[in-house]
Design goal:
- It is a single chain.
- By secondary structure, the chain is α+β, with helices and mostly antiparallel strands.
- It is built from 14 helices and 23 strands.
- It is globular.
């Protein structure tokens, strides 16, 4: 193996989401002479970005105050109308907003494509001189002799499934930096390694997740209300004692973004998050909006649900965690872009000051401190007990208790209680304790099957490459994942990646259709034995989300 080429930078950023792009822009705003490189594993910036999204513009206002008049696509549709429904199987109860804490208001927010916002931010970053390399995933963390992070190496290209080099083989490149920002999103595979190496989780609770599955629809213009935001809870997850909920946002051009989030702390291994979305769409209130329309896009991703108590130590020698790599999602608001961007901005300010002082490769402890003294912390502390309260006491009682908790914190009365979190994979129970769930067949009009859905994510991977879904022990997968838990990977994956073949014949074989993978990371999170390790595939592979 020949020595890899290397390039030096002041700062290298891994990930082209809101956090990484905000960090890149802020670095150049503070010091235009800094050399900044951003790596994005998708074929373009925005290709792997998926969110509802209703965006609180707080961080965007701080970063680029003129964004509303500067052709930013997010400015197109301000939120005008806000609904919260508790669904039963055939009806709904509307919850008024007046009893809710002010934090829960969507006044002043905008709804649109987070992917398109990232594309716009990337243009702003490049205007400032940031070097952006799409299609180049960071596959390895590099270390200095003293154990500090030196930078990252990009993925080798043109490697066959058997490990041999194809005709188009291209060795990855090393990118060295004074500081490396990890903005990989939820459950990034390099971030997992860093959390372990530097014991970043030693004083925090375990991160937990939800699986968000989203569709984009063109609907009848007569039914379209630009800026209308609808959130739901209750049915259908109420039937299996599972938590989560749905959203439906009326965005620009007669489109609605809709989706369903299933918290991954569910117990029943027969729960099928994709099918829960399809059932939810058949609810009379949701179906009435969609009838006469057509689905145009599909995708899925994991969402950090742990809140403030799951935020780890953010700095380590030579690097920091920003955005969803750290986990700043406000679960009850279903918002994390503003907090992610602010974290990137704070990291940029800390790094720029350190470099100006002649530092490098040390720990940016001032960044961790600045986050804990920022409005990120203030906001997340207000809602820190919402998810664990709903998990522990159920939708009805948990919602009431969490509402009381939020109000008391808002009024600074305070409760000296931080409820505990438990890893999602530990929640899954044996299959013999449950009966399989009979989900309705798709009608091809409102509800669909998984494979036709994946086709609308425009996912593509080179077929002859190493499988990026690494099963550490296939025998354990057969004995436990299938034998004890009933093969939940065949259900929790929203892309149909995993199949157990030959079960009826008594010769089970685990088939991994890695070409289907939409990079949601659910398998890495929910496998009951933590036996599946998600790593980056060849650059540019994965979904290519338009307007998601």
């Amino acid at each position: 193996m020949s020595e890899r080429e290397s390039m030096p930078y002041d700062v290298v950023i891994v990930g082209g989401g809101p956090a990484g792009l905000a960090a890149a822009i802020r670095l150049k705003q503070v010091n235009a002479d800094l050399t900044v490189c951003l790596l994005e594993k998708g074929s373009e910036v925005g290709a792997h970005i998926l969110s509802g999204a209703v965006v609180d513009p707080k961080a965007l206002d701080e970063l680029l105050p003129d964004w509303r008049t500067d052709n930013c696509p997010m400015a197109e549709t301000p939120v005008t109308d806000n609904w919260h429904w508790v669904l039963s199987k055939g009806g709904k109860t509307s919850i008024p907003h007046w009893p809710m804490p002010p934090l829960m208001s969507n006044k002043g927010c905008y709804t649109g494509s987070l992917g398109n916002l990232c594309r716009w931010l990337a243009g702003k970053a490049e205007e400032l001189g940031v070097e952006i390399f799409p299609g180049f995933p960071a596959s390895e963390v590099l270390y200095n002799d003293d154990g500090s992070v030196k930078g990252v190496a990009t993925q080798d290209m043109g490697v066959a499934k058997d490990g041999s080099h194809k005709g188009d083989y291209q060795q990855g490149m090393e990118l060295h930096a004074k500081y490396t920002f990890f903005a990989e999103g939820a459950r990034g595979h390099l971030t997992k390694q860093l959390r372990t190496k530097y014991a970043l989780d030693a004083d925090s609770q375990p991160q937990i997740y939800g699986l968000g599955i989203k569709e984009l629809w063109d609907i009848d213009p007569a039914k379209h209300v630009p800026g209308r935001v609808i959130h739901t809870q209750g049915w259908p997850l109420s039937e299996t004692g599972t938590n989560g909920g749905g959203f439906l946002y009326h965005q620009a051009n007669n489109q609605v973004a809709l989706g369903f989030v299933t918290w991954l702390n569910y117990k029943n291994p027969y729960v099928f998050p994709f099918e829960e979305l399809q059932r939810w769409k058949q609810h009379p209130e949701i179906r009435a909006i969609l009838e006469g329309g057509r689905r145009v896009s599909y995708g899925a991703r994991a969402i950090n649900d742990g809140g403030w108590q799951a935020v780890p130590k953010l700095d380590f020698p030579g690097g920091v965690l920003i955005g969803c790599s750290a986990g700043f999602v406000n679960v009850p608001r279903i918002k994390g872009s503003h907090t992610a961007m602010k974290s990137g901005m704070l990291a940029a300010e800390a790094a720029a000051a350190a470099i100006d002082a002649g530092r490098g490769s040390d720990a940016l402890a001032e960044y961790d401190a600045s986050v804990r003294d920022s409005w990120i912390a203030k906001e997340l502390k207000l809602v820190q007990n919402v998810l664990p309260a709903v998990e522990k006491f159920g939708d009805d009682i948990g919602t009431v208790l969490s509402g009381i908790d939020m109000w008391m914190r808002t009024l600074k009365i305070g409760l000296p209680i931080t409820m505990k979190l438990h890893p999602d994979y530990k929640a899954l129970e044996r299959a013999d304790l449950y009966k399989p769930i009979a989900y309705p067949k798709p009608d091809g009009v409102i509800s669909f099957d998984r494979l036709s859905s994946v086709a609308q994510s425009f996912t593509n991977h080179a077929e002859d490459q190493p499988v990026h879904l690494q099963v550490r022990d296939l025998e354990l997968q057969k004995v436990s994942e299938l034998g004890v838990f009933g093969g939940p990977s065949t259900r929790y994956c929203p892309a149909g990646v995993y199949e157990w073949l030959g079960v009826e014949e008594g010769k089970p074989v685990y088939q991994i259709n890695s070409q289907n993978c939409v990079h949601c990371k659910t398998c890495d999170i929910k496998d009951p034995n933590q036996n599946i390790n998600w790593v980056t595939p060849e650059g540019g592979g994965g979904p290519n989300y338009p307007n998601m």
